[in-house]
């Protein structure tokens, strides 16, 4: 027979705060990813710092397809630098759980777009 015991609200708050703190300080970040044409997943307000191997002038809408067209590109970031720059990157390590990607940081700037090619 199962019994239900109530957990005090204070305990729930402490556990919730601990979990949020743990996720905030890991290099695995969760984002809600949108899917685009091809095998592109993208989101706003995020960055993958470093690992750039090239950059091209581009609109934000075309940045993911620019990455997908380059066989060594695994992920990308688009900024409005120089009227729109797509930063092509290599070496993304995705976890086995779909919405997580290592090295991702969130930014307060929703004009920055980041994404990855999900079959690479």
UniProtKB/TrEMBL annotation:
Gene3D superfamilies: Hepatocyte Growth Factor
UniProt xrefs under InterPro entries: Pan_app
Pfam families: PAN_4 (PF14295)
Signal peptide span: 1-28
Keywords: Signal
Apple domain ranges (all copies): 47-89
Record's protein name: Apple domain-containing protein
Organism listed in the record: Rotaria magnacalcarata
Lineage: Eukaryota, Metazoa, Spiralia, Gnathifera, Rotifera
């Amino acid at each position: 027979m199962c019994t239900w015991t109530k957990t005090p609200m204070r305990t729930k708050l402490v556990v919730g705060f601990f979990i949020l703190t743990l996720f905030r300080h890991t290099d695995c970040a969760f984002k809600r990813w949108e899917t685009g044409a091809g095998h592109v997943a993208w989101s706003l307000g995020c960055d993958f710092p470093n690992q750039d191997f090239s950059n091209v002038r581009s609109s934000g809408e075309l940045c993911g397809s620019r990455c997908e067209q380059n066989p060594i590109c695994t992920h990308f970031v688009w900024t409005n630098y120089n009227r729109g720059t797509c930063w092509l990157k290599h070496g993304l390590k995705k976890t086995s759980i779909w919405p997580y990607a290592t090295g991702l940081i969130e930014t307060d700037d929703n004009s920055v777009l980041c994404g990855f090619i999900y079959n690479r």
